[in-house]
Amino acid sequence: MRLFIVLLLIPFLGIGQNFQPKGKGQVINHTYYSLSYSEENEQAEWVYYTLSPQMINGHVVRTNDFRTDSKVRTSSATKSDYYKSGYDRGHLAPAGDMKISHTAMSESFYLSNIAPQNPSFNRGGWRSLESLVRSWVLSESDMHVVTGGIFNNNLGSIGANRVSIPSHFYKIVFSEKKNKMIGLVMPNKKITSQLSFYVVSVDYIEAQTGIDFFYQLDDDIENRLESSEQSSNWNFSLSVSPSVGSSSSASVQCKGTAKSTSKRCGNKTKNESGYCYAHKNQSSDYAAPSNSAYIGRCNATTKSGNRCKRNAASTTKYCWQHQ
């Protein structure tokens, strides 16, 4: 029985120590990440997980099954809070970090792991930062990641549940193997500077959020790592690969079979599954979305940097071209 319990904990804890922060909200543990839910702001004040190369190199495709988190005692935000709000449903623990299993991918779409993000921010600088962190992990091995919004000067709220719109978002990355740590704070708007411009000390993030990060470390080590900006210890020149769901990958011929001809489909697709919009349900990894899926304008960004003007296809938030 004891061995069985330990094995159950392995996916969540990852390799190394568990460094959950100290916050004020309800702590919720999912399979590969944990969070502290702020009822006042209807989102997580922090999301924490240990990111490994295996989680990045998995083959599970994006599920887009946004839904409420039943583990939140006071009820989490809902999809209707974001509908026509003008803000993206921005991941804190990104889907691109949860490709190791269908459970991990699907749980990343709980609305407790989502925050309102300016579309230009979510699809630009924030996505680039998420990709850069993945590059660090792939080149140096496992790292601990903490992410959340800063609620000091919110930009208002959205929806009936009054979901706070953070003015800034923070991300802290700790390499236990290399004994180094970095913090970044980015404004919730279009990012025009290099990512290294947004590096701050972790002490600064603690002062802005009231959260105690990495308190499990020895005091001397914690003070040294958290008191200064450490951008010189991190490689900002690593190639930033597209995150899951990105439309910038190369097109390939769809693997699907056309029902009308029983021959291979001739469409080109950028979907990671290798199946086009018409045949995505033929993929072995396909998971049907819930009946209450997104309805409205496509959420993709065109090559010119503008939001796509097409309507989203059924059961997804993207049009046929950008799925």
Describe the structure.
By secondary structure, the protein is of the alpha+beta class. The protein has helices at 2-13, 53-56, 79-82, 102-107, 119-123, 125-140, 202-209, 219-226; strands at 26-29, 34-38, 43-51, 88-91, 114-117, 143-150, 157-158, 163-164, 168-175, 180-187, 199-200, 252-253, 268-269. Mean pLDDT is 85; it is low at 1-15, 241-249 and 289-293. Helix content is 20%, strand content 19%. The longest helix has 16 residues, at 125-140. Strands 1-2-3-6-9-10-11 form a seven-stranded antiparallel beta sheet. The chain has a two-stranded antiparallel sheet with strand order 4-5. Strands 7-8 form a two-stranded antiparallel ribbon. The chain is built from eight helices and 13 strands. It has one domain (2-233): Extracellular Endonuclease, Chain A (3-Layer(aba) Sandwich).
